[in-house]
Design brief:
Blueprint lengths: L1 H65 L2 H6 L6 E3 L15 H12 L6 H7 L3 E2 L11 E2 L12 H12 L7 E4 L5 H9 L4 E6 L7 E6 L5 E5 L2 E10 L4 E6 L3 E6 H10 L4 E5 L1
Parallel strand pairs: 2-3
Antiparallel strand pairs: 1-8, 4-11, 5-8, 5-11, 6-7, 8-9, 9-10
């Protein structure tokens, strides 16, 4: 009887031991499963983050590479003031009506190109006689050596710059940026790019006179005081602009008046950029 009771106690202890072992085994499996699942989740989450970062980086780099450099310049920030240290080239006495090609010479010299205004006028400026076959958007009407000549507009100077650059080992791009607001011009200056712009002598009010009728029936009208210069600085706090005037040299003009004449002359401008 005692032996029977003793055997019963041993069976009960074995069951408890077995149950405890099973419980530990189950807990171990749960722990392992938890660690594995946590690791997998961490791995997937980390991989997704890395992929997203790579994709965003690649997209940003692609957009930067494909964006037009000219658009980057024109859309640049415009601080309250900026000035480019540049020396004006004077048109007289050689080129009494050559303000346009002289202004281009000023910019080219600033960028390190050793070129003379007369060299540009002789070899790169498209010149034609007036009378109806050409307009100032197509050629310089007359010759800049003649005090009675007319002049030319932005497309002609852009083409002259392009022809010159075609012969240079280190090239810059020439762009006719006419039609842009004066703020876009200031954006160019703020980034270190002087701009050739069309204005009038001493910012006088222009008046248009008809000289002849073109072959297509349109009338050739020439603005009095037509002039070309280089803007190399501005100061919104002082309401001034700094220009390289081929007749006056380095000069300061009132900003409001300068902007007004810029618009009246068709908002014409030429930019050389890298």
């Amino acid at each position: 009887m005692d032996n029977h009771k003793s055997g019963g106690k041993e069976d009960s202890g074995s069951k408890k031991k077995n149950n405890g072992g099973c419980l530990l085994f189950v807990l171990l499996i749960i722990c392992v499963a938890t660690v594995v699942l946590a690791w997998k989740f961490r791995d997937k989450s980390g991989t997704a983050d890395v992929s997203a970062t790579v994709q965003i980086t690649q997209t940003t780099e692609t957009e930067s590479e494909t964006k037009d450099p000219l658009e980057i310049i024109l859309s640049g920030d415009v601080p309250s003031s900026h000035n480019i240290n540049i020396e004006a080239v004077l048109q007289n006495p050689e080129l009494p009506t050559g303000c346009e090609i002289t202004s281009l010479t000023t910019v080219l010299n600033y960028w390190g190109y050793d070129v003379d205004k007369c060299d540009l006028a002789d070899n790169y400026l498209h010149k034609e006689s007036g009378g109806g076959e050409y307009t100032m958007y197509e050629a310089f009407l007359g010759t800049p050596y003649d005090s009675n000549a007319f002049g030319c507009y932005a497309p002609v100077i852009k083409d002259a710059a392009g022809k010159y650059m075609a012969r240079q080992p280190e090239k810059m791009q020439a762009a006719d940026i006419s039609g842009n607001s004066i703020e876009k011009v200031y954006a160019c200056v703020a980034q270190g790019y002087p701009v050739v712009i069309w204005s009038t002598m001493n910012l006088n009010e222009p008046s248009w006179t008809t000289y002849w009728t073109n072959e297509d029936g349109t009338k050739f009208e020439f603005p009095s005081y037509e002039h070309c210069m280089v803007i190399n600085g501005y100061n919104k706090n002082d309401n001034t602009v700094e220009v390289c005037d081929p007749m006056e040299g380095n000069t300061t003009y009132e900003m409001d008046r300068f902007e007004e004449i810029y618009k009246e002359m068709g908002s014409q401008a030429v930019l050389l950029y890298k």
